[in-house]
Design goal:
alpha/beta; about 230 residues; 5 strands; Rossmann fold
Length: about 230
Amino acid sequence: MQATLLRGIKPGLREYALYLPLYNGTESLEVGVPEGAKFESLAPRKVKPLIFYGTSITHGACASRPGMAHPAILGRRLDMPVINIGFSGNGKMHASVGDLMAEVDAAAYIIDCLPNMNAAAVNAHCVPLVKQLRKARPYTPIVLVEDRRFPNSWLVPRAAKIHDANHAALRKAYEQLKAAGVKHLHYLGGDALLGEDGEGTTDGSHPNDLGFIRQANAFEPVLRNALKLE
């Protein structure tokens, strides 16, 4: 399949960001420019990246286009490179993923796995993962993120109970880590991630573009504080 994304561009020298598909693999990519036009790649940025570890929501389901997932939005707002390791159904604070994260000298690690976990799993894996990262990277900020609430959880007691338990388990882990002297640890609550009007998802779980913008709005001040950008 071929598609033309843009034509008739006004002349001028400017910088572009190209986002590859979130789920479809890219076998080849070509960028065409008029004869005589100048086009060149930029050198890799020296700024440390933000690493987002999470679920299909982190991955970008169900954004209308790749640049609308909240990690991409935040990368633009903060002008920082982003490494997105969102695993559909399998973001579970695995130590093996922590090993890979620790290899990267990141600006911050954002751990957003609760939508794929229950309270027992959070109790088992959160503290060890944070300690694993902190041992390898003593000064890198780590942000723990609660899961969003299903918009219908106020109607479904079972769903509300799952969120309550998850949030309580993550908060307990956070307090335990802080009491143990773990520094540069930050926390983002989940209740307001999607808003309160029920308009932020495609299926009652995964954000639509509005939901991703709302998530980016919630993440941004926490990240700015963690990165000392305020």
